[in-house]
Amino acid sequence: MKRSLPIKETIALGLFMFALFLGAGNLIFPPLLGQQAGEALWSAVLGFLVTGVGLPLLAIIAISNVKGDLDVLSKRVHKSFALVFPVLIYLTIGPFFGIPRTGTVAYEVGVVPFLGEASRFSLFLATLIFFAVTFWISLNPTKLVDRVGKVLTPILLLVILVIAIRAFVSPLGSVSEITDAYRENAFFGGFLEGFLTMDAIAALIFGVVIINRIRERGFTSVSDIRSNTILAGIIAGVGLSFVYLSLAFMGATSVETIGIQENGGAILAGVTSSLFGSFGSMLLAIVITGACLTTSVGLVSACGEYLSKRFSSFSYPVVIAVLCLFSLTMANLGLSQLIAVSLPLLIVIYPITIVLILLSITESFKKVTSSVYMGAIIGAAIVSTYDGLTTAGFDIDILTNLFSYLPLYNVGVGWLVPSLVGGLLGGLLGKR
C-alpha cells in the first residue's frame, strides 16, 4: 500500500520544488514570449508549458524511479557513460554556470537600480552576502523544506500574486499584434521557448534534493517516493503555470505603454514601474532576488549532496563551502568567460538529457534495453555536439549544409529524428 506525506508536508514540499525551478531566467522568458506572441498568446503559452513545465516534471518522475540516483539512471546507458555524464551535469549546471549566475543577476536587478551604477566593490559585497546566505540555508539539508518551502516561497508567491492581480485588474493596454516569430505556428514557437529554460537538466539535480527530503521522512520504496514526488510536482506545476501565464499576459499587454523591448528583464522592469511607480522596482528586486536565492540554495545543496557522496573523503559542509567560494569568485571575476564556455556544453548535453528522461519514463511501462539507450543517445549526441561547436564559433559549411536537411534542424530540434533512428537501430542490433 502506497503511503503519502501529510497534506501540510506535501504542500510545503511542492512549494519547495516550485521555488527551486523558479529562477531568474524563468521569470524573463514568459514576458518576452507574451510581447512577441501577442494575439496568439494562449496558444504560445500552452506550447511553453508543455516543455517549460511538463518536461521538467517528467524529469523529476524519471529520477524518482531510481530513488534520486543519477548514477543509477546513467548506468542504464553504459557504465562508462555513468562515470562522465552525472559529473558533467552537476558541474555545468552548478558551479560552472547556474550558481554564479544567480548571484550576478540578483545584484544587477536587486541592487544596482538602487545604487545608480555598478561597481566592483558593491558587486563583491552583494555577492558575498548572497552566497553567505546561500551557504547558511544549505548547511542543513534536512531543514531546507522548512526554510524554503514554508518561509521563502510563500513570501515570493505573495509578491508575485500582488503584481499578477494588479496586471490582470488594470492591464497596461490591449493585447499586441502577433510578430513574425509566432505568426505561422505559435504553439511550436512557445514549445521551443520552453526548451530554452533548460529546466529538464536542472530537474535531474533538483530531483535529488526533493527525493532525499522524502526519504528523510521514512519513505524508502520506489512507489512511495514516486507517488509523493508526483504529488509535490503537481503543486509545483500549478504554481509555475500560474506564474508563466501571468508574466506572459503582462508582456502581451505592455506594448502600448512601454513599447517593444529586447529582453524579458526590461519588460518586467517597465511593467512593474508602470503599475506601481518607484515601488515597482522594489517589488521586482524582491521577486528576482528571492528567485535567485532559492535556485542557488537548490543547486548548492544538490551539488553538495552528490559530490560529497561521490567523493566521500570530503564532507558535505566542506563541499558546499568550496562551491559557494568558487561561485563567489566566478561571479566577480570570470562569469562572462565562463558562460561562453558553459553554454556550448549545455547545448551538447541538453538533448542527451531529454532522451535519457523520455526513455526512463518509457521504462516505467516497458523494458528498454541498454542498446536502445545507447543508440538513441548517440543519435542525439551527433547533432547536439555539432550544435555546441557552432555555438562556440566552430562552424563548418559542409556539415552545416548536411545537417540542414534534417527535419526540424532549423528550429533547434534537429537531434530528434537521428535519436529515434539511433534507438531503433540500437534495438535491432541488441536483438541480434
Topology:
Layout: H1 7-21, H2 24-37, H3 41-64, H4 70-75, H5 79-93, H6 98-110, H7 112-115, H8 120-138, H9 144-169, H10 180-183, H11 186-196, H12 199-215, H13 222-252, H14 255-258, H15 264-276, H16 278-310, H17 316-333, H18 335-363, H19 370-391, H20 397-403, H21 416-431
Helix pairs in contact: 1-9, 1-12, 1-13, 2-3, 2-13, 2-15, 3-11, 3-12, 3-13, 3-18, 5-16, 6-8, 6-16, 6-17, 8-16, 8-17, 9-13, 9-16, 12-16, 15-16, 16-17, 18-19, 19-21
Number of helices: 21
Structural class: mainly alpha
Residue share in helix: over 70%
CATH architecture of the largest domain: Up-down Bundle
Number of domains: 2
**Per CATH, what is the topology of the largest domain?**
Amino acid/polyamine transporter I
Largest sheet properties: none
Radius of gyration: 21 Å
Show unreliable segments: none
Strand element count = 0
* Terminal-residue CA separation: 40 Å
- What is the averaged pLDDT score? 87
Shape: globular
Give the SSE order as H and E letters: HHHHHHHHHHHHHHHHHHHHH
Determine the strand fraction and express it as a percent band.
under 5%
What is the CATH C level class of the largest domain, in words? Mainly Alpha
Protein name: Branched-chain amino acid transport system carrier protein
Transmembrane segments: 12-29, 41-61, 81-99, 119-139, 151-169, 189-211, 231-255, 275-302, 314-333, 339-359, 371-389, 409-429
GO molecular function: L-isoleucine transmembrane transporter activity; L-leucine transmembrane transporter activity; L-valine transmembrane transporter activity
Subcellular location: Cell membrane
